[in-house]
Amino acid sequence: MNEALSIDAPPPRPRGRRLVLWGALVALLVVAQSLLVFLTANYERVRAQDLVESAATAAAAEVRQALSRHQQSLQALQWNDPGAARWRSEAATLLHSRRDLMRIERRDPRMHIADAVDSPYQGPVFTRIAREDIELEAQLACAGALRLAAPAFSRSYFVPLSDGLGLEVMDLCVPLQRAGQPDGVVIATLALGRLLEESVGAEMSRGHEFSFIEGDGTRLARAGARRGAGVFVAERVIDLPGQGLQLRVDSAVGSPSLIPNLAVALVFGLSLALAVVVGLLVRDVRRRAGAEARLAEALSFRKAMEDSLVTGLRARDLSGRITHVNPAFCEMVGFGEAELMGPSTPPYWPPELAADYARRQSVRLGGPPAVPGRSTQEARAGFETIFMRRNGERFPVLIFEAPLVDGQGRHTGWMSSVLDVSAQRRVEELSRQQQERLQATARLATVGEMASLLSHELNQPLAAIASYAAGSLNLLEAGRPADPEAPAMLRQAAQRIAEQAERAGRVIKSVHDFVRRREQAREAVRADVLFDAVMPLVRLQARKSGTRIELDLPDPPPRVVCDRTMVEQVLLNLTRNGIQAMETNTELADRVLTLRARQTHERWVTFSVVDRGPGIADDVATRLFTPFFTTRSEGMGLGLSLCRTVIEQHGGALDFVNLASVGTGLGTEFRFTLPSEARERAAAAALAAEPPDAAAELPS
Ligand code: ADP
User: Distance of CA 487 to CAs 227, 319, 460, 493, Å?
Assistant: First the structure.
């Protein structure tokens, strides 16, 4: 079977499996998108953390640098052993340049304050609480510093101020030496908050909050333009001699929120677009699935339809190779689908006709129909040819063929429906034989009927012959051969005998001719010749009832094409019916039978047989042409039904008119039409004008 036609719809995927696939697709998309969003957000976080870490590192370095600068400045104060006044002025200068230094003191080896200068920015720190009461941390740091002979920092401590606030400070203790011997210390008090502010600078403090904290997280001092959000935090321990400081940097940036974030918005937008595309794809797939289902349904419908056909279907490509056959065709020719589709010469071509078929096929398949619509007409008309079954039996088929045109309008081959007409032909043959037998029977019946008339008619010449013969014998026996008139009288008698014998012979011959002549051939014949042929028999019958026969023919008489014998029998039947109709109730003077022929149409000649009988009663009229219907005891009732069959076989029509009903006196007119010679000529000419590759050249 043709591939294109035999594609069965793929087995429908189970609904559950389809749902699982869709679920998996959606889940994958959701996971991928969530991962993307998560990674984007995470990247933001890592970046913010990196920023805060680097800020912490930078700030710690700055603080370390500031503190080491303080150490150097304090040590520098003692250079060249300045006097009290100079020390004070240099200490004041130092306090002026370093805002984070609150106070610088000089102490003697016994740790008594020798000198002290306060920051010009803040004013004296130890006002609310005296320095002596709050110097424990400083003394501890100095003890360490003296022990190590190196600067040391104290722990930080809180100094309340007079304005109600306070400061977190720490002391830097720098041991002094004179001539290699310890000579007191210099103590600088640093405000941790200021230290931070001075170290980190405006740029860094804009986005972060810097603080010094204790081990438990208590904040000691802070700096920075904004408060930290507490999300991105970095801590650094700043190791100082004798002490450690914990620096904490807290970014003002909070957790990256999803909505106003550009990158996240972009990812969301893309996800949304992806979801829309997937949605559209799903819709498209559903539509396709719907279309596929409908297509599969249509295909199975067509296949069922095709399988149920009793007409054979056969498709061929442009090279004549069979591309598709239906089961009915396989059954018809008795070959399987595979056997039919393989070879280039179909196995159902009878070998003796194969060459002929191949030639006709090559003409037909040479190209698409040149005249649009022509093929459709041909397909409608069909053509008959002979195929062969697998068992070698030849059988007639009727083929209707139409071009196959694909979706792009290209001519791709031919599609034929093939009808096995062998049964039909058998029936036709049977019917023809029966018809012939019936006609023969009817003829014989007519002849039988005529036998009595024949005997009556033959009586006359025979009686005449007998009397002439008797007269001649008398003449001879009376011994009058010497009579000079005798030879003349005998010759006349013999002549009469010959004439009468000839007449009797003619009568017999006309009957013989009628019964015997049975050639089927149609021939062109003049109307008067037809009448003349039946006239002896007609007259024979007419004479018995005293009926006159009138012939009404134009000059020249029209010519028709017909089977003479059959039409003569029709004429004989009609004239006999007419004569019989007038036999009983018609005056002798009115017994006239008119036989007429007219060219009533360019293509038709009408024959009429008109009697002046009583006409045909309505109840008789309805059954007139029914076989075996008769009103006569000796009738067979076949005459008119056979007449109509014969005329219709010629393409004509037979009917009758009650003359009383049309107001032209009593009687009946039976008339029939026959094709004129002109019509047959025109038909033959039309056939001759057909192009050579038409009906006669159709492929098989
Ligand atoms: P049959 O002659 O054997 O009876 P037909 O078929 O020739 O069979 O005629 C059938 C019947 O039609 C006749 O019996 C007759 O009654 C009627 N019929 C035929 N021709 C005429 C006619 N010209 N006038 C009146 N009746 C007719």
Answer: 178, 92, 25, 10
